[in-house]
Amino acid sequence: MTTTSATLAPVIAIRPPLYAQLWRRVPRELGYLLPGYPIAMVGFCLSVALLATSFATLITFFLGVFILIATLYIARGFGTVELVRLRWSGQPPITGPEWQDARARQGFWSWLRAVVGNGHYWLALLHTLVISPVASFLSWLVTIIWTSTALGALSYGLWINAIGRGSLTVGRYYLTNWLFPNALDGTARLSVELVLNVLFGLVLLALLPFVTRGFTVMHWGIARLLLSPFRSDALKRQVIALNQSRGAAASAEGQSLRKLERDLHDGPQQRLVRLQMDIAAAQRVLDTDPTAAHGLLEGAMTQSKEALEELRALSRGFAPPLLLDRGLAAALDSLAARSTVPVTFDDRLGDAQLPLEIERNAYFVASELLANVAKHSGAKSASLAVTLRSGEQAETTWLDVTVTDDGAGGASAVAGHGLAGLDERLHGLGGTLEISSPSGGPTVVIGQLPVVLG
Fold first, then answer.
1. Could you tell me the maximum CA-CA distance found in the chain, to the nearest angstrom?
2. Shortest CA distance to 252 belongs to which of 399, 428, 40?
3. CATH classification of 323-452 is 3.30.300.230, yes or no?
4. Cα(278)–Cα(290) distance, integer angstroms
5. Where are the domains of the chain?
6. Torsion of Cα atoms, 214 then 218 then 221 then 225, to 10°
7. What is the mean pLDDT of each run of 10 residues along the chain (454 residues)?
8. Beta 443-452 vs 396-405: how paired, if at all?
9. Alpha-carbon distances, residue 417 vs 86, 369, 377, 412, 427 (angstroms)
């Protein structure tokens, strides 16, 4: 007996909250179901009238086609309203379909083909013309009858006095006449009738949340079937996104190469030319003026050291040896230590093992962001953090490279500047760049890189 009670206790403890949750949704579900049929009939009448007019005027082509397009757009509008109403009722949101495609931006005839050839418009028309009126009438009728009967039975003792207890017409509808024919009379019958009506009303009221939830879920299922995107839509978006990423990656790579060429030309190349000239000049005066030759050689040595430092700085933008030897955290720590602006490094990677290509790109993002802080922010201090977080898909995580500074703010991804190129590079890798930089600071820039784990 003790075991049985212990087993049932969790069930008894769980059921009331679940039932209470059903009741909390009842007002919103009634607010969805009761106006549903009038709204469906308005959509039905408009669609039928316009569709009939479009068929009747197809002989004039343009007029009939435009009326047909108007009918499809009205069906789209009522479908969108249905999705909004379902979301308001508490059901899970349904993403709207792709109403337009690339053809719609290629001129009038392409737009016309994009609308008429889009199956979502015709499914929305089917929903507005047939499915929604039938389903809404069924749910509206049952909900009205169920709710009014429950309230009428509970208030039986109030309204029966208004129409007369002794009325023969009313007497035919007494529950006692059905359950106890000729067994009760007078005051006893009226008392039992009152009790039966209250009990009947309580039962109907207790089941009302299941009725409203059932019909709301039914409408949600219909909308999910007819008014949601096709699976092919997601594939099309993925193909478009991949094409855009490929183009962004190619553009970012081209910009990186041009930047590298410019940096090599303006930095090490100029110093090496100067070095060559100093050495040649030293050779010419070596025999006649050893002191001058010595001075020229010292200048050449300085030029060679500066060229070497510039080459090392450029190489850090690719993959420094420290990154290959000791990993991303050590490389970023070294990068922060070399910054001209004091930088605090926060390593939140733990023992995570990342692909080398991801580490290389994360290092590049951090290097560019810290260089941007040093050149443009006017900051006195900054922080660098790397974090791994879970993505929406189980096999994908995101690597966030966050740089914060206390500079003047106002940073933005202006075309042709560093942050714009970094944004394009991240987009090409399937990532994003988020910038928060109000005037007066602080500036927070987050480079997000997708990490697909095998």
1. 144
2. 428
3. no
4. 14
5. 1-229, 250-316, 323-452
6. 170
7. 42 58 90 93 92 78 80 91 93 83 63 77 91 94 92 78 51 57 59 79 91 94 88 62 57 61 66 75 76 77 72 60 79 86 86 81 86 83 88 72 87 69 77 85 87 66
8. antiparallel
9. 45, 12, 14, 9, 16
Pull the structure tokens for residue 165. Answer: 């207890």
Q: Are 425 and 369 in contact (CB under 8 A)?
A: no
With CA atoms as reference, report the closest residue to 359 among 328, 336, 333, 316. 328
- Residue in the block written with tokens 């047939």: 130
**At residue 159, what is the residue type?**
W
**169-170-173-175 Cα dihedral, nearest 10 degrees:** -140
The answer to whether residues 226 and 126 touch, using CB atoms and an 8 Å cutoff, is yes
Place of tokens 């930047």: 259
* 271, two tokens: 């110093």
Contact 380, 342 (CB under 8 A): yes
Return phi, psi of residue 57, to 5°: -110, 10
Q: How far is CA 323 from CA 153, 316, 320, 354, in A?
A: 78, 9, 5, 12
8 A C-beta contact, residue 423 and residue 411: no
- Burial group, residue 391, by CB count within 10 angstroms (0-12, 13-18, 19+): middle
Six-digit token string for 267: 């930095």
Q: Distance (Å, rounded) from C-alpha 373 to C-alpha 385?
A: 15
For residues 164 and 423, give the distance between their C-alpha atoms in angstroms, rounded to a whole number.
80
What's residue 362's pLDDT?
A: 86
Closest to 233 measured CA to CA, from 317, 309, 152, 123: 123
Find all residues with CB under 8 Å of 123, minimum gap 6, and list them.
226, 227
Residues 6 or more apart whose CB falls under 8 angstroms from that of 336 comprise 343, 344, 345, 370, 384
